[in-house]
Every structure is written in structure tokens, then in C-alpha cells.
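Sequence only, no structure available. Ideas?
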Amino acid sequence: MAIHVELLQYTGDPERLVSAAAKLCYSSAGIEDVMEGLNEEKTQRFLAMLMEMGHESPIEHVSFTFGVEGVSRSLLAQLTRHRLASYSVKSQRYVKEGQFAFVVPPEIENLPEAKAVYLKAMADDQAAYDKLTGLLFEKHFAALTADGMPEKKAKSTAEKMAIEDARFVLPNACETKLMVTMNARSLMNFFHHRCCNRAQWEIRELADQMLALVREVAPTLFAHAGPSCVAGPCPEGKMSCGRMAQMRERYR
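Reply:
I predicted one. C-alpha cells follow.
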């Protein structure tokens, strides 16, 4: 299953808006005319000044919303560590996993013996989920109808109660879908950490796709985005991948 990312929405004319915020900081312009005169040349100049000075607060005024699918719950656990963001995720409490999709790591995909073990584990998880859902549904349905709840409502309530607990056997590999919104400054931080060679392969692929999308709509703003080593020294110390020159070439 391949990761699929779409840029669903973003702040209109993001680079001009960031430039206006910078202009307000460094000139006597008032609110009424802060957007005036910001042609392409001046916009680029203000952005270049911000990047050179490391003045990042103005870029918080623009945000980007992505739709993501084909990723694992394992990735979700890493992604939500980026706390300055908003997330909406497919719920395993309310959506029954009748035949759950799952992500296969490339190293497992490329080793037949490992893939066979992996696929059996996924099938066993599905069987356990289905069995637990059935057993719990029967228990809850009987109790709800005994208490006088109408049959139709009892069925829907019992299923929700059943899958709420049955989901505990679902694996980290289980596929999920989500929407995430970040401002540009948070995105820069996300790219610094997750485009790095030392990031886990799945979230690195997600970060690369997100970076490609924002560069289409704000190329100057994200011109130097990517792993930390693109615009400065590698922060990994002795854990460095040792490929700083190649990484700079790739992301620039």
C-alpha cells in the first residue's frame, strides 16, 4: 500500500502574506497599507531576509492542510508527537475493520520468508478481531435488549461497544487515514526531523511528499526546507548518516 498525500487547502497567497508580516516588523507601514507594494520582487526580498536572519515567527501566519492515506498506525504515533498541529483521524472505535488494510515494510516485502510470516500475522489478527467482535456483540446485544432497548438501536449500540474493545488486537501495521494542518513554522520543524536519513522510512516518505506539495505553492518560503543539514550542520553528532553533501544536493 503506497502513501498518498494531497494538499487540500492552504492560506491564500502565502508568500505575500508572510512578507506583509515581515514588512510590519521592519518598517513604519500601517495595517491599511501593509499589503501594498508587495510585488513579486519585494516579496522575494522580504522572504530572503527572513530566512537569512532566522526570524521565523512571521511564517506562522500561513497554514497548510493535508489529506493522508495509506499510512500505518505506527506512523500516526510518530506524527502526533508534532504537537503544534491539528489532526483528524479515522476512528477505530466507530469504524468497523471488516477487512483491515495494512502497510508492509519494504524490508519485509522484499524477503519472501519474512513476508509469509507477516501476512499470516495479519490474517490471525483479522480472525481474532472478527471473533472478539462477534462474541462481544452477542453479549452486549443480549444485555441491551433485556433492558428494553429497541432491537435496531441495540444492534448499532452493541456493535459500537464490541469494536471499541476488539480493536485492541489490531496491529500497528493497520492502515489509517487522516487530515493534518500545520503552520509553516511547524512544517519547517517537521521537515527538519522527518526528512532526515535517520527518520523511520514511512514518515520520511510522508515528509518528502508533503514538502514537494508545499514547494509547488510556496517555492521561496520552502526553498531551504528539508533535513536540518540542508541549511546548517548535522545535529545528529556521532549518529550522523555521514551523507550531508548528498542530502543538500537532493533537497536543494
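The two ends are 29 Å apart (CA to CA).
Hope that gets you unstuck.
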